[in-house]
Amino acid sequence: MHKSIKGKLILWLSLVMALFLAGASVYLHNRLDRILLESVDNLLYSKVQLITGLIIVDELHIEIELSEVVQGEYAIPRSGHYYRVLNWNAKEIARSPSLENVTDFPPVQLPRSVSERYETIARGPAGEPVRWLTHTFQAQGGRYLVVQAGERLTETYKLEHIFSRLLMIAAPLGLLLLLAGAVVTVNVSLKPLRSFSDSIGSITHKNLNDRIDPGRQDRELHELTNSFNTMLDRLESAFEQEQRFVSDASHELRTPITVIKSQCEVILRRERTPQEYRESLEMIRVVSNRMGGLVESLLAIARLDAAVPLTRHEPVSVADLARSAVYILRPISEEHQVTVRYGEIAEGARVMGDSTKLTEVIVNLMENGVRYNKPGGSVVVDVACRNNEVVVSVRDTGQGIPEDSLGRVFDRFWRADESRSTGGTGLGLSIVKRIVDAHDGRIEVESTVGEGSCFRVYLPRST
Amino acid sequence: MRVLLVEDEKNLARTIKQGLEEEGFSVDVSHDGEEGCFMAENYPYDVVILDVMLPTIDGFTIIAHLRKHRSEVPVLMLTAKSTVQDRIKGLNTGADDYLPKPFDFDELVARVKALMRRKSGTASPVINVADLEIDLDAREVKRAGQPISLSTKEFNILEYLASRRGKVVSRTELSEHVYDMNFDLDSNVIDVYITYLRRKIDRDFEKKLIHTVRGAGYILKE
């Protein structure tokens, strides 16, 4: 239950409603009690005024003028209306007939000043609760007298009781009805979410270019819809990229496979000399190796794509890497008659990363510089420190890259010429870029056709 | 039966050249688009086998160029790029046939022969001239029911004469279509082979089919 929006909503709504209803009931109940008591007190006060007006005082004695009013309700025993009059000695000098033999009264002190006091005593003639008003006043002659007027509270209490009972029925009922309303409201409110989730459910890898129409969703879901559509955009592009990769890769593998297949078919068409078989197998061997290298590069790319973390993360001296690269490339440089050397190397250039992979980056860039070069040309590597970065530059005097291709240079399978005659797999630069990215660096290229290219790798410097 | 193969993958080119030559074709190879285009335009080939992904200019451009310059040479596209769109593009640009890589070598041979037949106007693989029967596919020759054994070059010359039967064929034309570009035109190897052919085909029969047209060339006719 605690893991559901609906559950939470209904729970909180019920809590709030219950609290509200409970508070309201308590308040109403108290208010009614007070109002009822107030009206009784008001009545008592007017009665006291009445009775006070009927008292005649002279030097010798006090007399209460009998009147209709006084005689009416106060004459009937246990009528619920009572009065008492006391003199300045606190001695009772009169009481209403309705009082009968009651002895339970609010205490009366000897009068000293004019005052009023309200009290409830639970001892009327029938044992019922009575509300008394004790009124001290100054009579003619300066003496203080006390009048006490009382009203039965039985009816009041009965009213209060009825009201309580009403509240006790109405409140829970009300809560139930509100709860039912809340459930309906919550269900209706959450319906757009359900329809949204249905829309999401209808998108599979087959129709990834479908989007959810924000116009058909409630306004509150627009932001969610847009985020979701953006995510679909990213998914779709990643999917397309993967499909393109698979198709590119299989296309690349077709050529070596064709060579092997055709060579086998042609050679097997007739009897051959052992020498011919040997030459044929030699060609197949060379092509198979090339294919193997291609598959390795593809796997490397796939692994880098899967964002596998670098195998090592340690301080690396870029100067050392550059020198190793030059050394590694010596045979190839001799084969192509291209000079490979280093220019200016900053010895303090250090980065955090994987020395093997970074060496691969430099070697790859320089190798390209050799392969796409002319005999007598050169490839130079420099290492410099600039701001907080280490900059590795590889410059060559090769054939250059046309301007409209510069943006695609780091794409998979891109080649300077669309053939395979210069050797290589076309994956080198794409692998280079991924390694550089994994080191939080960036790579740039400048090139002029016919003159040469310059690749620059920027890596964050480590102290 | 001269074929131009434009393919930049050197091992593949070598393989195809060897296979086709063993089938009796003469094969010239170019590894470069521009060079291949030049060769296709300026030398007479019976079929051009063209890869699409080439250095300098690509196969589609070459086909378009050839067709624009009124070359009707049959072109067979051979390429690893084999989506339907690529095939349609190639055929629309003017290629005559298409074979995706990897392919069966037998199929390559069959398609090349079919293209040649289409060009020379013979739908059937058998050419008949009087009682001479030339089976282009099986590379067998019979006259009056008797099988005649010919060497590759002899057969090629006969085949070319037959495809042009009734028309005069110059020595130059013969050498161009039967030999690759390394052939030395000054030698009279053609005459020698014609002599061999005559010996095998005409000598023992009354009706002579191979005739010399003085100053012009040779002609195969009844």
Describe the structure concisely for a colleague.
The complex is a heterodimer of chains A (463) and B (222). Chain A has 463 residues and is an alpha+beta fold.
> Care to count the β-strands of chain A?
14
Q: What structural category characterises the helix and strand content of chain B?
A: alpha/beta
First-last Cα distance of chain B: 23 Å
Shape of chain B: elongated
Terminal-residue CA separation of chain A? 54 Å
Tell how many strands the DSSP assignment of chain B holds: 11
Rounded mean pLDDT score of chain A:
83
Beta strand % of chain B = 15-25%
Helix content of chain B: 40-55%
Q: Calculate Rg of chain B over CA atoms.
A: 18 Å
State the helicity of chain A in percent bands: 40-55%
Arrangement of strands in the largest sheet of chain A:
4-3-7-6-5
Compute the average pLDDT of chain B.
85
> Could you list the spans of chain B in which at least 5 consecutive residues all have pLDDT below 50?
none
Based on CA inertia axes, which overall geometry of chain A fits? rod-shaped
Strand order of the largest sheet of chain B: 2-1-3-4-5
Proportion of beta-strand residues of chain A: 15-25%
**How would a crystallographer describe the biggest sheet of chain B?**
5 strands, parallel
